């Protein structure tokens, strides 16, 4: 048992950032032999792979200042080139705004589904968004887009039934724009949609740079140290 007034459990981005902002000398106890948690880059056969695909969007002014200036991270700006393989064709992301080259049947399902849903006002949309993400998708995009793409895709990526997901959690995603979807289903477009159409990425190791730069500012990171038990009242941990 060791006694401390404060400890940070885990040197993932949350733990590292908390320690950086709270007290750079606080003990940060990390079970693994390296910092970063999910935000890690591993070497394999002389190639670098991020553990999970991480892109930096940096909308918050404080975070932009921290990344660009205070921490001095080297980042580059990129334009998203993301595509979806469906119906044996490759279409640009996002699916719902690029129906043009899908098979006639899928396109028909999507447009028919969209035509079945009613237009709603901003106020009505706010009300609908109080329900589950699944409800919202069916009411806003219709059954075609929902069943061909939005529901299975989001079930897979979040490993969660969309009926259990809130719209607040999914608020970064694109709002249904019926007219735009139908227009794009009939004519080609080169528009970029969504919060991640442009993003920043680190230039040296990969996303690991972000964790490493925080770690260099901290004085007491203890790797290979798994916390098994802690007692907050008497401030002991094992
Ligand atoms: C596929 C995927 C893509 C993502 N893409 C993005 C993105 O593009 N942009 C973005 O901003 N976010 C993205 N995220 C989210 C982001 O990865 C997480 O929000 C963030 O990494 C969480 O950091 P964390 O420190 O809370 O947890 P973690 O990264 O999980 O870190 C937890 C750390 O605690 C350690 N630990 C656990 N238990 C103990 C213990 N008992 N004792 C000691 N140490 C312990 C672990 O070893 C680990 O190092 C993505 C996530 C995933 C899964």
Present the secondary structure layout:
Layout: E1 2-3, E2 8-9, H1 13-22, E3 28-29, E4 41-44, E5 47-50, H2 61-70, E6 75-79, E7 83-86, E8 89-92, H3 104-116, H4 122-128, H5 133-158, H6 178-186, E9 198-202, H7 208-215, E10 221-222, E11 230-231, E12 236-237
Parallel strand pairs: 2-3, 3-10
Antiparallel strand pairs: 1-12, 4-5, 6-9, 7-8, 11-12
Helix pairs in contact: 1-7, 3-5
This protein binds flavin-adenine dinucleotide (FAD).
Flavin-adenine dinucleotide (FAD) binds next to helix 1.
> What separation lies between the terminal Cα atoms?
5 Å
The assigned CATH architecture of the largest domain is 3-Layer(bba) Sandwich
- Top CATH class of the largest domain: Alpha Beta
* Most strands sheet: 3 strands, antiparallel
Write out the strand line-up for the largest beta sheet, numbering strands in chain order: 1-12-11
Query: DSSP helix count?
Result: 7
Radius of gyration: 23 Å
Given the helix and strand composition, which structural class is it?
alpha+beta
> How many individual β-strands?
12
* Share of helix, binned: 25-40%
Bound ligands, each once? flavin-adenine dinucleotide
Mean pLDDT: 91
